[in-house]
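Q: what sequence does this backbone want?
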């Protein structure tokens, strides 16, 4: 892995501490956000802690530059909640605080904030049907102007939700749209969700195809996913690859494990 981002993150974190000690909390928050952004989702707990530090630094900050950063930090903390752990009530509280800021300042954020909240609520044991309904409500909101990839991002979430709800045909239709439109997804959305969009879509697709009885298509999809994931370091994606292979083995009656 390239060590440069880690070094830049450490430097930004030192600057954040320096500014905090000097009483320059807004500057400290910007450097802390830079440090958090340079981490990968492999370090989800550390990333969450650093975004939480941004929120702490911005408490009571009246500077007009603070609200967009506060909204972004809240969204990141909530979205990381399914990896790093978060109570549903905390997710609701953070999102409620962030939405007022986000709606007025950055049109890219409201949909992602609500998606993040829905993801955390589902990962905390909420019903899959509620996740489906939440994502559909988010899709019905106005998308950011000039961003055709936002629908693709949310269709990816819908695909996951529909699959968990057992609505395989609808999930595959959403997945078709994601696989075709993945190149349109913005860097902002990719950074927010923390996954390679195509890899996540293919991992979901392998499972959906297996459960739909389309085993030959699932095998082809799994080979493509394995090829794309050869240099992957995110343990969640790697687990998705293994889970897809195991699902295919089970569906085809092969019980000799996964290579």
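A:
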């Amino acid at each position: 892995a390239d060590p440069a981002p880690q070094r830049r993150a450490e430097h930004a974190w030192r600057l954040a501490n320096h500014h905090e000690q000097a009483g320059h909390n807004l500057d400290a928050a910007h450097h802390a956000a830079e440090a958090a952004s340079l981490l990968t989702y492999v370090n989800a707990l550390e990333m969450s802690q650093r975004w939480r530090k941004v929120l702490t630094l911005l408490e009571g900050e009246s500077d007009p530059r603070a609200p967009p950063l506060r909204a972004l930090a809240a969204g990141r903390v909530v979205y990381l909640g399914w990896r790093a752990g978060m109570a549903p009530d905390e997710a609701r509280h953070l999102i409620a605080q962030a939405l007022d800021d986000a709606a007025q300042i950055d049109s890219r954020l409201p949909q992602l904030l609500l998606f993040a909240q829905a993801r955390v609520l589902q990962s905390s044991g909420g019903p899959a049907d509620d996740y489906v309904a939440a994502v559909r409500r988010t899709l019905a909101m106005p998308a950011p102007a000039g961003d055709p990839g936002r629908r693709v991002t949310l269709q990816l979430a819908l695909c996951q939700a529909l699959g968990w709800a057992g609505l395989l045909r609808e999930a595959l239709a959403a997945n078709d749209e994601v696989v075709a439109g993945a190149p349109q997804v913005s860097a902002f959305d990719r950074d927010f969700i923390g996954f390679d969009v195509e890899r996540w879509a293919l991992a979901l697709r392998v499972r959906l195809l297996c459960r739909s009885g389309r085993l030959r298509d699932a095998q082809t999809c799994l080979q493509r996913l394995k090829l794309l994931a050869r240099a992957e370091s995110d343990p969640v994606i790697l687990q998705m690859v293994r889970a897809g292979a195991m699902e295919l083995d089970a569906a085809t009656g092969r019980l000799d494990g996964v290579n």
